[in-house]
Amino acid sequence: MKKSITAVCILLCVCSSKISIAQSKVAVVSVEDIFGMMPEAKKADSLLMVFQKELADNYAYMQKELSADIEKFYIDSVNMTLSLKNIKKTDFQNRISSLSGKEQQNNSAIDAEREKLVKPIREKLIKAVQDVAKENGYTHVAYKDQMIVYPPGDDITDKVKKKLGIK
Predict the structure, then answer these.
(1) Alpha-carbon distance 77 to 58, whole Å?
(2) What are phi and psi of 103, to 5 degrees?
(3) Which backbone phi and psi does 142 adopt, to 5 degrees?
(4) What CA–CA distance (Å, rounded) separates 34 from 143?
């Protein structure tokens, strides 16, 4: 009796696992390829490059101005008093420190701007992937580059491109 109950339990477990596996449908998608083709992403990239250039130009100007002032200081320092020299040196040290902080601020500003520009595009792409998955009955979607083996028919990259109007 115990053996037949155990056999029935094992049979039920095997059958229920087969049913749950049969209900799952997995797709793959190459979001990197799609993202790179989206016109919004190209525009965001251009805007980010302009933003980076403005920050870099401003930083270069500040750096050039500091270098010119230091050069002028070395030429004029012959005629300066010791206290004036010390004041100028302290000022240069503060400006150099400020310039270093400015570089970190610029990097943070670039990261924040990138996130601000990319977030809506990424959300649009994810929504399109979700819609295509739902329309085609897929329960799971994985990144294509993380899969080693998959049926070519389960690659929804072209369907997502079509959904987004990308040719």
Answers:
(1) 28
(2) -60, -45
(3) -115, 160
(4) 12
DSSP-based three-state secondary structure for 147: coil
Structure tokens at 161: 């491109």
Side chain identity at residue 119, one-letter code = K
DSSP 131-142: HHHHHTT-SEEE
- What would the 3-class secondary structure string for the chain be? CHHHHHHHHHHHHHHHHHHHHHHCCEEEECHHHHHHHCHHHHHHHHHHHHHHHHHHHHHHHHHHHHHHHHHHHHHHHHHCCHHHHHHHHHHHHHHHHHHHHHHHHHHHHHHHHHHHHHHHHHHHHHHHHHHHHHHCCCCEEEEHHHCCCCCHHHECHHHHHHHHCCC
Amino acid identity, residue 154? D
pTM here is: 0.70
- Tens-digit pLDDT profile for residues 94-117: 999 999 899 899 999 999 999 999
